[in-house]
Amino acid sequence: MFTIGDFARHGRVSVRMLRHYDATGLLRPAHVDPANGYRHYTAAQLARLNRIIALKDLGFTLRQVHDIVDEKVEAEELRGMLRLRRAELETAVVAERARLTQVEARLRAIESEGHMPTNDVVLKSVPAVRVARMTATAASFDPEDIGPVIGPLYTVLFRRLELAGIAPTGPGVSHYEDAPEGGGRITVHAAVQVSAPLGSGDFEVVDLPPVERAATIVHRGAMATVLPTAQTLARWIDAGGHTSVGYPREVTLECPENLDDWVTELQAPLDEA
């Protein structure tokens, strides 16, 4: 038998944790010396300890772990629990990757302060364009909130266009406005140029008005990394004494499978000169 300290070392856990498992009945010592109360464990108990730690790392509560290792949970129920937990972990991984992308974008924006040339900005007029679009609301204009909203919108939009027999005639035109309910929420429009009658059905067909004066810049890469480009555009607007009116449109010029190869033009509407 092993003392509690030896067993903790072999199991790569703390003595404190083993005492807690003992107190909750999750992992009792194989023997407790009646004279001094010292706990002793066997090597065979490492198997139960391994299962406990694995289930804990999967996010199960101690009550759930207790039922699973004591075989109070049917195999089918356990499979369902594990599938659910796997889905939760996958969602968390995606969210953390998106957060890491935003941290990297913010870092690049800081590193590029004063270095990114603003001569890439072009002042031009943007003609009116007819688009089919779908609309939803995002919690904010943060890319972490916009991305999960606009991606699915485009997926549904293109599927419905195909069912309606309408082919896009130009690039996607994502545009935004403050949501009526306020609170920093954003109305997100996922749109694409079409040649179709005005109206609405499974999607809306509208004419976006022209923009007489727009400051534009081309961003190369995934929209999750647009921050440095967007802030270069903002510096140009400020340096020129202009005033932006509303959110920039995002015109997708190229959208290959690899997001890092995307080419998107930002079009920031300006006040009249």
Automatic annotation (TrEMBL):
SUPFAM superfamilies: Probable bacterial effector-binding domain, Putative DNA-binding domain
Domain of life of the native organism: Bacteria
SMART domains assigned: AraC_E_bind, HTH_MERR
Gene3D superfamilies: 1.10.1660.10, Regulatory factor, effector binding domain
UniProt feature coiled coil, ranges: 86-113
Gene Ontology molecular function: any one: DNA-binding transcription factor activity
Domain HTH merR-type: 1-71
Xref: InterPro entries: AraC_E-bd, DNA-bd_dom_put_sf, GyrI-like, MerR-type_HTH_dom, MerR_fam, Reg_factor_effector_dom_sf
Name of one Pfam family that matches: GyrI-like
Keywords, comma-separated and alphabetical: Coiled coil, DNA-binding
Protein name (record): MerR family transcriptional regulator
